[in-house]
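Protein Record: Sequence and Backbone Structure Tokens
======================================================
Tokens: labelled as protein backbone structure tokens, with as many entries as the chain has residues.
Task: work out the structure tokens from the sequence, keeping to the layout shown below.
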Amino acid sequence: DAAWQPFLVTPPVPDYPSTHTVLGWAAAEVLIELFGDRVRYGLTSLTLPGVTRHYRGFSQAAEENGLSRVYAGIHFGHAVRDGRRQGRSIGQAVAEALAPVH
């Protein structure tokens, strides 16, 4: 769509991978390992006062976090997809390293 405009000014950062997505999924994987993925919670925006997003789990928030970069015009879908894969792998490795040794 030639008329499409991003929500934000595209910053001078590399597209690939989406580090925002990598970090979001890495954190989500550690939290999922600790608490499971059926934790309901809400987050209120600091930049849009009064706007609260509600989530059914950490993976839902991580997915939205990644997609926000596409909506903002910062990344293409493949950068988010591969960032998700990379972040999940990192998060699982961290969770495994933090697991108690019996």
Summary: The chain has a mean pLDDT of 93.
